[in-house]
Design goal:
CATH superfamily: NAD(P)-binding Rossmann-like Domain
Shape: globular
Strand content: 5-15%
Number of domains: 1
Low-confidence stretches: none
CATH class: Alpha Beta
Mean pLDDT: 89
Number of helices: 9
Largest sheet: 7 strands, parallel
Strand order of the largest sheet: 3-2-1-4-5-6-7
Number of strands: 7
Radius of gyration: 20 Å
Distance between the termini: 62 Å
Oligomer: single chain
CATH architecture: 3-Layer(aba) Sandwich
């Protein structure tokens, strides 16, 4: 009798998860195809994107420019900023400004504020991110590198959001997009600080949505799985898209889903991952990342 009841419970649990996944997929990815999406230009003139020279940040900047928004690109390398600005101007002919800033610093944000304080900012994309180069024990990571990761992954989102929010509240409209990670769904051993930082970003974005939903502000948490970026180092496959198709799908979910994986196959991954018991993840994840750590260190030793 016990096993029958257990089997029914498991079946109902999986069915409930499937129903939730189907509804979330329809709402987030299919409804926008029939016109259920926000008009970004109605929220203002400018979009500000951090970490705008590569990966998801660059792809979001290109897509927002395609929609007709003027762009503010922020990253730490002026040469790359100039190149992306040139690409945007050639492709979409919109006004584009660049700000060279290293988000690993905990101060100096006045430089950014001086540039953008008078702008009618429609969208802020908190995208800039930093991860340690390979899986590593927390105790073996240099504390300076840990501090840099906290500044880039957490402090940047807090300061940039605080910087633009006042103007959005005065206009009673604005969009805040915070690029977290599917790593926020569970602890990630050997990427301890990165995953914990992404939990902060995820909860920060969702709490802001609760606070300011009635004020005309949209705050969305994006929690992607792997995308083919320099940060991930993963090759394109069915579940790992290039940044451009990811950004196109992700931006369509804004205003529809408060928390989104941003890509239909990532939603499927999230659904399947949620069915795996935590006790199994706790056994498997350390083995996966330890193996990867050993491979990287072996490669490094051969080069040395």
């Amino acid at each position: 009798m016990f096993w029958v009841l257990l089997g029914k419970f498991v079946a109902l649990y999986i069915l409930a998860k499937a129903i939730c996944f189907i509804w979330a997929t329809l709402r987030s990815f299919l409804f926008p195809l029939f016109g259920w999406r926000i008009n970004y230009k109605s929220y203002g003139e400018w979009a500000v994107v951090t970490g705008a020279t590569d990966g998801i940040g660059k792809a979001c900047a290109m897509e927002l420019a395609r929609m007709g928004l003027k762009m503010v690109l922020i990253s730490r390398t002026q040469e790359k900023l100039d190149q992306v600005a040139k690409e945007i101007n050639e492709a979409h002919n919109v006004e584009t400004r660049t700000i060279c800033f290293d988000f690993s610093a905990s101060s100096g944000y006045e430089k950014i504020e001086d540039e953008i304080h008078s702008m009618n900012i429609a969208v802020l994309v908190n995208n800039v991110g930093m991860v340690f180069g390979y899986p590593e024990y927390f105790g073996l990571m240099p504390i300076e590198k840990i501090e840099d990761m906290i500044n880039v992954n957490i402090l940047s989102a807090v300061k940039m959001t605080h910087m633009v929010l006042k103007g959005m509240l005065e206009r009673k409209k604005g969009i805040l997009i915070h690029v977290s990670s599917s790593g926020a769904d569970q602890p990630i051993p050997f990427f301890t600080v990165y995953a914990a930082a992404k939990v902060f970003v995820d909860y920060f974005a969702r709490a802001l949505q609760m606070e300011y939903r009635s004020s005309g502000i949209i705050s969305q948490s994006l929690v992607p799985f792997y995308v083919t970026t320099k940060l991930s180092g993963v090759q394109k496959n069915l579940f790992c898209p290039n940044p451009t198709p990811y950004a196109k799908q992700a931006l369509r979910t804004v205003g529809i889903a408060d928390r989104s994986y941003g890509y239909i196959m990532h939603s499927l991954e999230g659904c399947l991952s949620s069915l795996i018991p935590d006790v199994v993840k706790a056994k498997v994840l350390p083995q996966i990342f330890l193996k990867r750590r050993e491979e990287v260190l072996l490669e490094k030793s051969k080069k040395d």
